[in-house]
């Protein structure tokens, strides 16, 4: 592509992106295609002759766009709502052009050093302890895998050389709550501990890990010959965004000599808001912590940060320098390949740097606080409406609730018009599932669900920069319409 062509195509693309970012709500938020539709619309083989860019772009609009679920849509309330903000998008464009491979300091001095500086900024914005040093990976799953690999390295001398199998070693155990993200399970599996090497600790009525149950489990395991290795505490669990009692867990870890990893992938950035600083209390005693700027910090996917207080242990676990990568650079330069599995790594710090600078601390605080306000407002509507039931506290920007249409005798039982009993759990689950499916098929908003105390829960996750009170009102209105449908379908009052 010659420069003139690149310029023309680039301008066209920028125009398209600008219009898209301005108003993605002209598309259905959840892709309305069926499995196989996109693949079937594509040729079976790569083209023999090169094709003009105009054709490529036309096929993007014709074939690909219908299969896009719009995570950058203000009506996206599913899972965790995220935003690829404009400065981050532009940084990704530039990053692709620069094509940095920051494996060694010399292969990208700027990416290496900007990463260190930007992660110190973020650390300080969140009020994290100054003993934490950061490194960027793609996702929280990989950040956590590295944290637990470091924990294993510290607890089992020689594991790097001798491995775990066929040795005189007790079985290793990692602890987390029953609400912890599945990435912990995968890390434990991958590290050779076996899935049984993860013990899930019961939670209290507000879905927080019970420290008494943790201490008891560790004691029981030690008595039975296990070697406790690490605890993963979560600040902002995936289902309900509950916060484990990190100070109490840290106390147990200190007493037992266990690595404490804090999974704050989604909620950690809330600490940028002064009133939420306390959610990271206790992390000053953690060994590692993960936070994802790609989740609630307006940075395009992907960008996850692992903060670790023992980068030397991480290096001990992963540093391996073949001859062809030896350099004469000063021995204290940081080579990012030493702190993880990946050799080559892309220039993710650029987008985070631009996001932090574009919004400023003030802008970030305002947007985060507004998302929290919106979620609480939605929770208030739920609480005030007899046809709804809230199923979890709202510590951050996610509300867990369900439709539970009111029956006019006030007991959720019969109003004398047919049903002489309360809703069953199965009926409520069916009603809420159906409501969610119908709303998602409408394309205006996208909701997801979870299960809390064996109850089917809908989730509203606020996290997109352009989501306003109007979008939430519309979501509530759509849910109200389903209440009336549900009441009639089951034949209640
Ligand atoms: C989203 C999330 C993860 C997984 O994040 P990825 O970056 O997609 O791997 C892990 N833990 C928590 C608490 C999360 O919210």
Topology:
Layout: H1 3-22, H2 37-40, H3 53-64, H4 86-98, H5 109-125, E1 133-137, H6 140-155, H7 159-162, E2 172-177, H8 182-190, E3 198-201, H9 211-223, E4 227-234, H10 246-256, E5 259-263, E6 288-291, H11 293-296, E7 304-308, H12 311-318, H13 349-384, E8 388-390, E9 398-403, H14 425-442, E10 448-452, E11 455-461, H15 469-490
Parallel strand pairs: 2-3, 2-4, 4-5, 5-6
Antiparallel strand pairs: 1-7, 6-7, 8-9, 9-11, 10-11
Helix pairs in contact: 4-13, 5-13, 6-8, 6-12, 9-10, 14-15
The protein binds pyridoxal-5'-phosphate.
Strand order of the biggest β-sheet: 1-7-6-5-4-2-3
Note the total helix count.
Answer: 15
Please state the oligomeric state of the protein chains shown: single chain
Q: What integer is the average pLDDT?
A: 94
Tell me roughly what share of residues is in helical segments.
40-55%
What is the C-alpha radius of gyration, as a whole number of Å? 25 Å
Distance between the termini: 67 Å
Report the count of strand segments: 11
CATH superfamily of the largest domain: Type I PLP-dependent aspartate aminotransferase-like (Major domain)
CATH topology of the largest domain: Aspartate Aminotransferase, domain 2
Return the structural class: alpha/beta
What compounds are bound to the protein? pyridoxal-5'-phosphate
Count up the domains.
2
